[in-house]
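Standup notes, structure subgroup. Blocker cleared on the pyridoxal-5'-phosphate input:
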Amino acid sequence: MAALPFSDEHVPPMLLHDAAHVWHPYTQHFNAPMPVPIARAAGSWLYDAQGRPILDAISSWWVTTHGHCREEIVEAIAEQARTLDQVIFAGFTHEPATALAAELVSRLPRGLTRVFYSDDGSTAVEVAIKLSLQSFANRGTPRRLVAALENAYHGDTFGAMAAGARGVFTHMYEPLLFEVARLPDPSVGDTLAALDALIASRGQELAAVIVEPLLLGAGGMRVWDESVLQGIRERTQSAGVHLIADEVLTGFGRTGPMFACDRADVRPDLLCMSKGLTGGVLPLGATAATEDIFDAFRSEDRRKTFFHGHSYTANPIACAAALASLQLFDEECEDDRVRIEVAQATHLAELRGVRGVKAVRHIGTIGAVELEAGEGYLSEVGRELAAFALQEGVLIRPLGNVAYCLPPYCTTDDEIAQVYEVMSRFLDGERADPLTTGGPIDD
Ligand SMILES: *Cc1c(COP(=O)(O)O)cnc(C)c1O
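Run returned:
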């Protein structure tokens, strides 16, 4: 209990229960400092148990799109909760899920006409991979190989881990992960040449290529070229291989347009959504598929059914939140995204070449700064920056030595300036006072 920012008699009970009974994600409980108790949130701000504001510069792990506790979404949730809270989605249907499917299809890249609901980003990826593999099997031409990018991240369930890059997150499970053909990270390597070679040697086995279009997120906010995405689409198309676009992060405006595929005018066969789908308020996943893939499952032979579903598939309250969020996208969101894109570009330009900055990266509303330091996710510099920023009232959570600003779209230019000001002061040598922060926040 060392270094708590509370005097003994003011330790909130939630911290005692937390210390005794809670297991946090991505947290080394041996030496993690006490978590920050958050009591409420509004717009781009979180408020801790003592009312101290913290600027949420990472959209609470990349989910919050329109800001916290948006009235329109809160109202939609309340009304739906009073009307229909939950119903089995096999053999039954409801307005929020059907309306949302139609609204999504009208905004998705052309050709994606079917929506399969699940719970989160990882399950949206699992569904996409299974749909691809089974569609080939159902047609009597089984293909079992999936190709994925170096430095990819697709989630933490087993199939998603298999598709993701090998590293500290996955090495423990490596012998249990299915084979994936690995293509070079397009931000540094020649992905298209490797894909050509793969199709030449194993094209008949290859079911799908899965990519995070234009931005490898958790792999270090690595931005890659639209022409490469177009090249992957052309090659997969002519080889009869599915392209799976994992837009769990990039979807819902993060790269500018609604989907990153739109930037490159690419139409994938499968597209995974979650994170920003409900405005970042409730968990929901969705996998969009082409009618061609859907058709591969329509059969008198019941074995060709997609035997997959989750208890909360298409939860009406989550779907209602997503519908309210989409309406906000229509009404006001685009101008804000353009404004944030300009602000990011301005601040990143100022950081380019500054001592301690190795590189800056930018796409749409996301700005990233690669700091000089030991490489990799376990690098210390990012943790030190996070601790300093938190002390200064800004939540950032670097990926190793890559710090980034990925704000809700309601974030003002002044608030974005505040994020970069904290980064600049850190680069000037300022550090957190260990007595007030409890030291670097944990990975
Ligand atoms: C976060 C993420 C996932 C996993 O989503 P969860 O909701 O955390 O399971 C999958 N793919 C990408 C690209 C992500 O950024």
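Discussed briefly. The domain at 71-327 is CATH 3.40.640.10 (Aspartate Aminotransferase; domain 2).
Next: hand off to the docking folks.
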